[in-house]
Structure formats: structure tokens, C-alpha cells
Amino acid sequence: MKTKKRLFIGLLSVSLGMIIGLVILIWFLAVNRDVVFYRVLLVVFGIFLLGIVALVGVGIVGMVLTLYQAKAIPSMQSYMRMATNLLFPMALGIGHLLGMNKNQIKSSFIEVNNQMVHTKKLWLEPEQVMILAPHCLQKSSCPHKLTMDVQNCKRCGGCSVHRLLELSEKYGVPLVVAPGGTLARRFIEKYRPQAIVAIACERDLTSGILDVNPLPVLGVRNMRPEGPCVNTTVDLNQVENAIQFFLVNSESWQKIKMYREVEG
Predict the structure, then answer these.
(1) Residue 3, SS3?
(2) CA distance 166 to 205
(3) By the 8 A CB rule, do 52 and 123 touch?
(4) CATH classification at residue 189
(5) 109 Cβ partners below 8 Å, 6+ apart?
(6) Which DSSP symbol is given to 233?
(7) Which of 161, 139, 164, 155 shows the shortest CA–CA distance to 230?
(8) Considering 18, 155, 165, 262, which has the largest number of Cβ atoms within 10 A of its Cβ?
(9) What are phi and psi of 198, to 5 degrees?
(10) Where are the transmembrane segments (predicted)?
(11) Residue 50 has what pLDDT?
(12) Residue 218 covered by a domain
């Protein structure tokens, strides 16, 4: 189920409003202070916060314009990253106080991130894109260790990994299976991808997207029929669509596709 993107944007805006309220409070305290030193100190701090408010405000406006126009605005990318990194924890806290589910807020963030990535014009080759999958996709009863080498998969069809391997081979895109953020970062350092198709739960996708920013990541949420972290599945169509987006301008993939069409 897709979560509305305006939820995340709305919570960011509320967070920004709270900071503006803090600036107004500081200004009020400064005006009513008798001691010049404290007045100057409050004014300087208020100006500092006001500068942050201005930059973050530009970032939120940039997000809204990017989503509305479906077109990237390169000059605002740094401001959008700043707005997300600074206000995201506050947005989560506000959402929690309002009784919202954290996963719902994180899903909204993932939807915003994915649409922002889709506004970019990327020219990538298959070896520059990486599929990053969680170990919980592997059947819990499977004795084969895939986290160090996904080729250990015996392709029995008991989980989604063998289908991901097929997509990896079809598009020439490397696939890795990581049990957590630490090993995921090692794989990123090893392969140095220019873009990532990441499969995970809302929590891990959110932290991963923020961690590797500004590296473009298309997040695909896993499905958890047996609960979190065990025997999860994934919509393979979403994974394939994400791969195709990154390779839409790839010369090598276009040649392979033409060759297959002729052979087929």
C-alpha cells in the first residue's frame, strides 16, 4: 500500500513552524532582557536559527516544487538534503505525539524519496547499479549462507532470492544480501555503485537512504507475512521497474534488449 507523500511534507512543515515559534520566543525574551550581554546573546542565537529556518524553508519549497513539476531542481538539492536531515527526527517525534504510526511516516518519506529520484536524469550502466537485499528474504530453514556470496543460493525456489538472481543476471546488475547496515555499507564501499535498488523494511530503508544521501536510492518495501525479519518477500515487479529506471539510458542494456528482441 502506498502512503501519501504529503504526510511527510506536512510533518516537515510543522517541524519548521515549531522552529519559527522558537525564534519568535527568543526574540521576545531578548527584547525584554535588561542585561545587554544576554540580550545580544539571544539575538545572535535567534539570527542563527533564523538562518537555518530560511535554508530549511527553501529545501521544503524545493521538495514541493520537485514533486509537483516532476522535474529535478539541481540548485536546491543541498537545501532539500538539509531539510530532510535536520527535520526528519523532529517530524517523527511530532507524528508520534499525534498518534501516527512511525512506519506510516517512514513509508511517506520513502515515497517522497522515490519520486525525487525519478525526477533525475541518470545515465548509468548495469555495473553502476546495485541491488541491495536483506537476509530475511532467505528462507529461515535454508542452510546456505548468502550474505558473503549470493551465488551460494541453490535456486530451489523456496524464497525470493533466486528470482532476484535472475533479475541480476538479466540486467547485468550486481546483487548482494546484507544482514544489516554495517555489512551493507561494506558492500557499497566495495562495489561503489552510482545508484542502489534497496529492499528492506521501512526502518532500514529510511536509515539507509539518509545514510548514503546524496547517492540515489529507490526503496522497495518488503512484505512480512510471518512478521518482521523472517521469511519476508518482495514485489519483484517493483524491483525490476526500479532497475529499468536506472538503466533506461544505458547503451549496453539497450543493445542487449535489441538482441533479445531479434532472437525472440
Answers:
(1) coil
(2) 23
(3) no
(4) 3.40.50
(5) 8, 84, 88, 206, 209
(6) B
(7) 139
(8) 165
(9) -105, 135
(10) 7-30, 36-67, 79-99
(11) 86
(12) yes
Assess whether 173 and 236 both reside in one domain.
yes
* Cβ proximity of 105 and 111 under 8 Å: no
**Cα separation of 7 and 108, whole Å?**
6
Quick one: which of 241, 231, 4 has its CA closest to 104?
A: 4
Residue length of the chain? 264
Q: How many CA atoms lie within 13 A of 214 on its CB side?
A: 10
The residue among 41, 29, 31, 78 whose CA lies nearest residue 58 is 78
Distance CA 175, CA 177 (A): 7
Q: How many domains does the chain have?
A: 2
Domain boundary among 61, 82, 112: 112
Q: Does any domain span residue 117?
A: no
Terminal Cα-to-Cα distance of the chain (whole angstroms): 35
